[in-house]
Amino acid sequence: MDDRNLNNNPQPTKDNFKSFSDIVINRKTLKAPAYPWQDLALRVIAELSVPGFKRNSVFKVCKEKPAAKILTALNDTKELCKDGAKWKYFFKVIDNDGLPLDKRSQTEDNDQTLNYQRLNH
Predict the structure, then answer these.
(1) Which of 50, 67, 111, 119 is the most exposed place for a label (fewest CB within 10 A)?
(2) CB 67 within 8 Å of CB 57
(3) DSSP per residue, 70-96
(4) CA 107/CA 58 separation, integer angstroms
(5) Is the model's pLDDT at 65 over the cut of 90?
(6) What angle do CA 82, 88, 94 make, to 5 degrees?
(7) Is 64 helix (H, G, I), strand (E, B) or coil?
(8) How many CA atoms within 13 Å lie on the side-chain side of 99?
(9) Residue 1: band (very low, low, confident or very high) from pLDDT cuts 50, 70, 90
(10) Higher-pLDDT residue of 115, 48
(11) pTM score above 0.70
(12) CA angle 61, 100, 63 (to 5 degrees)
């Protein structure tokens, strides 16, 4: 068997670099997120292929909502949305705050009724 076929990406050897400065110049540094919610937002962006113009919204949601709700919405989105823009479905799920749509409308109606009663009594 030919050695060239076994190793497509040759390991760096002392012949590849001429000096220590070449090593420092060629290294790749990755900046770690400063907060855990940033790491979570990057995960959502990567898994749902969020377009550039909506990435700030993902960061905002991940900063404002608990990580458990974000992960639940992410898992629900991956499970329920098989085709189309998954990131759109994610925003619908996260906006729902974990309530089914029929329960959400009942809760909003109850809130409006309570507010009306408070104002009139």
Answers:
(1) 119
(2) no
(3) HHHHHHHHHHH--SS-HHHHHHHHHHT
(4) 26
(5) yes
(6) 100
(7) helix
(8) 11
(9) very low
(10) 48
(11) no
(12) 10
Here the tokens at position 39 are 């790491």
Within a 10 A sphere around the Cβ of 106, how many other Cβ atoms? 12
Q: Does residue 89 register a pLDDT over 80?
A: yes
- What tokens were used for 100? 């089914």
- Inter-axis angle of helices 36-48 and 67-80, nearest 10: 10
Q: How many whole angstroms separate alpha carbon 55 and alpha carbon 48? A: 11
Would you put residue 51 in left (φ > 0), alpha (ψ -120 to 50) or beta? beta
Amino acid letter, residue 14? K
* pLDDT at residue 17 greater than cutoff 90: no
As a residue count, the chain comes to 121
